[in-house]
Each structure stands twice: as C-alpha cells, then as structure tokens.
Amino acid sequence: MSDPRTTLADRIEDLLPQTQCTKCGYPACRPYAEAIAAGSASYNQCPPGGAEGVARLAAVLGRPVIPLNPVH
Length: 72
Hints:
Layout: H1 8-15, H2 29-38, H3 50-61
C-alpha cells in the first residue's frame, strides 16, 4: 500500500529515469513530474524513459499508452 503522503508528482518522479537531461523541455525530472501531475505536460516527453517509461507513466495515470513524442 502506498504512503498517503506520497503525491502524484512523487509517484511520477519515481518512474522517471533521473537523467536530468532536459530533453522533455523541463530543467530536471522533478519539474517534469510536477507538470505531468498538474496536467500541463504530456507523459510521453521523456526520451531516456522510452516506450517503457511512457507505459509505466500511463499505468500510474490511468491513461492509454501513447507513442513517445518525436519532438523530444
């Protein structure tokens, strides 16, 4: 069972590869996780996470698996 103090952004950040590469358009993984949680970024913008990362994020968000955004 997950800790009730764990936010959606925390759960998303835990799934990101922590490369801090900025390829998603954000300065680090945490700001990207916060943007996904807030609904201001899509969950398919992380090239290091690839298709597997998109699938993991989709599962946490209850959303469909979508292709990695080629812009990123």
